[in-house]
């Protein structure tokens, strides 16, 4: 089923700066779903899922958070934190005129979604979380992103050279996920260093006490044998949250290579969150 797709933008201003953020809308109606990408990845990674959700009547928006994709990329580490990203999601909802949305994402996007639910619970209809990054992922995240921070800061020519090499490759001539990989390599060293620095030294996710107070319907998807996103974190999160369900992916690649099962789980969850008429109270 074909669905309408529209690209939009909005601007955020703070302390003399004005940053542009870009998003894509799929479908229409009042049953909003916002999908957020992983760290350094573009919003286009969620295009297949967004189209699937929109084909079932949901109004889906994918957002490039600041420093990612086609949004602005300031080189100031203070511009980047999970809290700042959550504020961008709320600003997107205000821009769209959406009172509530099911908010979800992958990795960084999952943590940002949690932050939105913790700080602006009245704006969240449900949470769709894949691969959250919590306590069990700390060491692996340092190993994965620490060298990237040092390389971008002290050997920026490596990151900038990758950008020059990957930018000219036509995305329409390569498989979809290869194109996402090329988009992820399309980085400026100063912006990469700022993003990683800001996330390393800022708030990563709501505390356990805050997570236990999130009462909206939640679907948590965890992957086996994923050191950066341990399934133990996803399972723990589902146990902490009173209205959460845990779904184990068959592999780290299932939702990318054979998405039918998890796509249907996501469709059923998002549609069910909008069918529910139960009012959720603010956290205690």
From TrEMBL:
SUPFAM superfamilies registered for this protein in UniProt: alpha/beta-Hydrolases (SSF53474)
Keywords per UniProt: Hydrolase
Coiled coil: none
GO MF terms, alphabetically ordered: hydrolase activity
Hydrolase listed as a keyword: yes
Domain AB hydrolase-1 intervals: 32-136
InterPro entries referenced in this protein's UniProt entry, alphabetically: AB_hydrolase_1 (IPR000073), AB_hydrolase_fold (IPR029058), AB_hydrolase_sf (IPR050266)
Protein name per its UniProtKB record: Alpha/beta fold hydrolase
């Amino acid at each position: 089923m074909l669905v309408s797709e529209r690209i939009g933008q909005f601007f955020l201003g703070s302390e003399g700066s004005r940053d542009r953020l870009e998003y894509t809308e799929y479908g229409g109606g009042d049953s909003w779903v916002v999908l957020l990408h992983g760290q350094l990845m573009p919003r286009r990674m969620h295009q297949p899922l967004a189209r699937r959700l929109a084909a079932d009547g949901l109004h889906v928006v994918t957002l490039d958070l600041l420093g990612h994709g086609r949004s602005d990329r300031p080189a100031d580490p203070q511009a980047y934190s999970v809290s700042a990203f959550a504020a961008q999601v709320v600003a997107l909802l205000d821009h769209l005129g959406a009172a509530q949305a099911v908010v979800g994402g992958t990795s960084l996007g999952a943590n940002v979604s949690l932050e939105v639910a913790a700080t602006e619970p009245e704006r969240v209809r449900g949470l769709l979380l894949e691969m959250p990054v919590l306590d069990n992922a700390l060491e692996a995240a340092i190993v994965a992103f620490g060298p990237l921070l040092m390389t971008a800061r002290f050997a920026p020519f490596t990151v900038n050279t990758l950008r020059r090499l990957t930018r000219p490759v036509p995305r329409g001539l390569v498989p979809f996920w290869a194109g996402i990989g090329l988009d992820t390599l399309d980085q400026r060293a100063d912006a990469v260093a700022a993003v990683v620095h800001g996330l390393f030294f800022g708030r990563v996710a709501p505390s356990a006490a805050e997570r236990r107070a999130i009462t909206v319907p939640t679907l948590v998807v965890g992957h086996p044998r994923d050191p950066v996103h341990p399934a133990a974190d996803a399972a723990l999160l589902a146990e902490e949250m009173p209205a959460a369900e845990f779904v184990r992916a068959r592999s780290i690649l299932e939702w990318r290579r054979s998405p039918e099962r998890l796509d249907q789980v996501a469709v059923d969850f998002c549609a069910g969150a909008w069918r529910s008429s139960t009012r959720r109270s603010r956290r205690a």
